[in-house]
Amino acid sequence: MNLRQIACHFVLLCIIAGCLNLPSVVAQAPNIPALHKQAKEGNAEAQYELAKAYLSGTGVPKDSKQGVDWLRKAANLEHPAAELALAIMYMEGEQYIPKDPKQGLEWLRKSAAQGYGPAEYNLGSLYRRGDEATGIPKKPHEAANWFRKAARQQGANSQTGLQEMLQQGLISRQEANWQASEPVIKTPPPAIEAKTVETKTIEAKTDKPKPFSLAEVEKGLQGGITCKRLSVLVDKFKVDFSLNADLRQRLGKEGADDALLATISASKRSL
Q1: Assuming Cys at both sites, which of 57, 76, 84, 174 could form a disulfide with 111, CB separation 3.0 to 4.6 Å?
Q2: pTM for the complete prediction?
């Protein structure tokens, strides 16, 4: 893919993701010197805007390598739009980004975990159709979950997707109702959770609380702790293991949803 194709492709991605405000872009060119200064100071938004400028040739000569470099910097600072753009580039492959769908999926999950509507829609789309390259199985109910999140941010494509899945009989009317609040399931804490919380509380009083091990997380899933509750515990106490593709698949089979997996992925504690 040549420089012109990369630039056009990236701009298209930005439009799809709702990253560009076209009227303002036409009216005012980016202040490249100011963006450079802010980007070098670690401003993620400036890094992202600079990436767009270099990839599209807006205000600067087109330079896809610099564009990708700034895009990576912004994504590493958890800029959700940059994470999504990088995710799609990894999934499709670009001149300076080798095709790696699984790496792309990791960036997509990071973006979606921040509540970024376009990423939520893209992740929902993968679950809707299933995707062999990333290893995402076809799960209509999981797709509906992500579509509802995006739909609440006025994501028209997600709203349409929910209606189509309802008409196809893939999800229930309740699942298609993005305007309703997510149901809160109130259940008494299982014995395993009570024991875990008690143990962590004692540790907190006597010494630095230990992070959860993989075995403890699996025991919680098997013991009936909801993913939402387990996410809260993991976020508080962290984990002592890194989440790779194999562990993600393993925990997914044991009932971990995407929100819990995203929390685990971001909660590795340095020991």
Answers
A1: 84
A2: 0.61
